Amino acid sequence: MINVALLPQGSVSDEAARYLFAGTEVDLNYHKLIADVFLSTANGRTDYSVIPIENTIEGSVSLHMDWIVHEVDLPIQAEWIYPSIQNLIGRLDELAGDNQAVDYSRVVKVLSHPVAMAQCLQYIREHLPHADLEHVSSTAEAVRIVRDHPQSGWAAIGTTIAAANNGLDVLDKGVTDHDNNYTRFLLVGEKPFTVRSSEKQKTSILVTLPEDFPGALHQLLSVFAWRRINLSRIESRPTKKKLGNYYFFIDIEMSLDSVLLPAAFTEIEALGCQIRILGSYPSFTYEG
């Protein structure tokens, strides 16, 4: 059986993991903190970790990226896209008005994960500008806290699965500010992912420039450009060693098995850059 570490039951990570492993016998190990998710796999207690790494609205999850670089050495084995559909969750009998619809004025506090909260800011400004906002470790944790505090006027932003698991009502569906709200997940671990296959392959690398000089990044990108290698993402993150020093995360739409990519890496290293290969893996799009 495959053992997988992920964020709490009822979170978007939970939904996304069930989508990726659909039809496969898998043991899902839930953790409250992302650090415990990573360490579960790094210490050999689970085969893989499910890591939300990027969102349509909020962009990259910097904390998770830093864990991959600085804290663990777990190769990426797969990536997939999953829709992040957030909902307002609470007790309807507590928060309903005379017409039995939710009375927003009765909501005094809204709890959720900061990324999920940020995906719903326009909705909150329109309907709940008076409510206190509290960030917690996951959307599932937010729903659990609301469950444990009846008659408090609290509501959570989370998934329908979390609402059902905790016996709460979905007060308002699909409260994210944009309909095309998707999250990109990574599966990290030592074992190659063989549950599903995909014609689309990607490779992720981390590049450190030898020094900051005019044209350094241009030289790096030119290595890929003249070979017509497509980069789907490039992002800088601090090395945490010196102010102004950065790594570059680069996602390449090509397998490491191709002829072009190893030659490109050799040329990059000849420029004095350091390359760390984070993984070469199948990429899955969402098929709803």
UniProtKB/TrEMBL annotation:
Top-level taxon of the source organism: Bacteria
Entry's EC annotation: 4.2.1.51
Record's protein name: Prephenate dehydratase
Annotated pathway: Amino-acid biosynthesis; L-phenylalanine biosynthesis; phenylpyruvate from prephenate: step 1/1
Pfam family, one: PDT
UniProt catalytic activity: prephenate + H(+) = 3-phenylpyruvate + CO2 + H2O
ACT domain segment(s): 205-282
PANTHER family in alphabetical order: PREPHENATE DEHYDRATASE P PROTEIN, PREPHENATE DEHYDRATASE-RELATED
Keyword Transmembrane helix: no
Alphabetized NCBIfam families for the sequence: PRK11898.1
UniProt keyword terms in alphabetical order: Amino-acid biosynthesis, Aromatic amino acid biosynthesis, Lyase, Phenylalanine biosynthesis
GO molecular function, one term: prephenate dehydratase activity
InterPro entries cross-referenced by the UniProt entry: ACT-like_dom_sf, ACT_dom, Chor_mutase/pphenate_deHydtase, Preph_deHydtase, Preph_deHydtase_CS
Sequence ranges assigned to domain Prephenate dehydratase in this UniProt record: 2-190
